[in-house]
Amino acid sequence: MGIWSVEGFASDEALDWLEGLNPADGLDPVARELHAVADAPDPHLTSARAEIALAAAELVAALGGEPHEALPPAARRWVDAQRPCHADTGLGIDTLVEATRALDFVVTSSQLAERWSGRMDERAWRGALDDLRMRLAKAAGVPRVE
Predict the structure, then answer these.
(1) Which residue, among 48, 63, 61, has the nearest Cα to 17 in the 3D structure?
(2) With 0-12 CB in 10 A as exposed, 13-18 as middle and 19+ as buried, what is 73?
(3) Model pTM?
(4) CB atoms within 10 A of CB 9
(5) What pLDDT was estimated at residue 145?
(6) CA angle 37, 96, 61 (to 5 degrees)
(7) What's the N-to-C CA distance of the chain in angstroms?
(8) What is the pLDDT of residue 86?
(9) Cα atoms in the 13 Å half-sphere on the side-chain side of 134
(10) What is the mean pLDDT of each run of 10 residues along the chain (146 residues)?
(11) CA-wise closest residue to 59 among 85, 79, 74, 77
């Protein structure tokens, strides 16, 4: 299991999960993953679960029109396949809230956060998560407070 950067898809776990997504299944597998993390009875996430939650949140942000600049091609294909389904109805606020809640657990209560803690690039990792949080808020239509 490898992590090579601070981005949401910069791990073997995230990319393996992404490759296993079938675009025909729609948003359901992504929403299920986020719900499982956000409503977990034990909020302390394994590193693998946290990496997948970050990838799922990145897909939600991208589907909401706020993709990360380094979104992998497989993620772009998945998002493009979902757009016709959400063009008229929009991305549900519930999914955006679940993505944000899952992100909160990754930051505050996960083995992944413990792995990044104290590393020289911890600030960059936390900055990447803050960027994801801002993109999720923007996708939800929440105005930015300065």
Answers:
(1) 48
(2) exposed
(3) 0.91
(4) 21
(5) 55
(6) 100
(7) 38
(8) 60
(9) 10
(10) 83 95 92 92 89 97 93 94 67 89 94 92 95 94 63
(11) 79
pLDDT of residue 146: 54
Burial 104-125 (b: 16+ CB within 10 A, else e): ebbbebbbbbeebeeeeeeeeb
Contact 128, 6 (CB under 8 A): yes
| C-alpha distance from residue 82 to each of 10, 16, 88 (Å) | 22, 19, 12
**Which of 13, 37, 17 minimizes the C-alpha distance to 102?**
37
Q: What is the pLDDT of residue 40?
A: 86
Residue 26 CA, chain-centre distance (Å), reads 16
Q: The tokens of 104 are what?
A: 């909160």
pLDDT for residue 19: 95
Q: Where are the domains of the chain?
A: 12-140
Structure tokens at 98: 């679940």
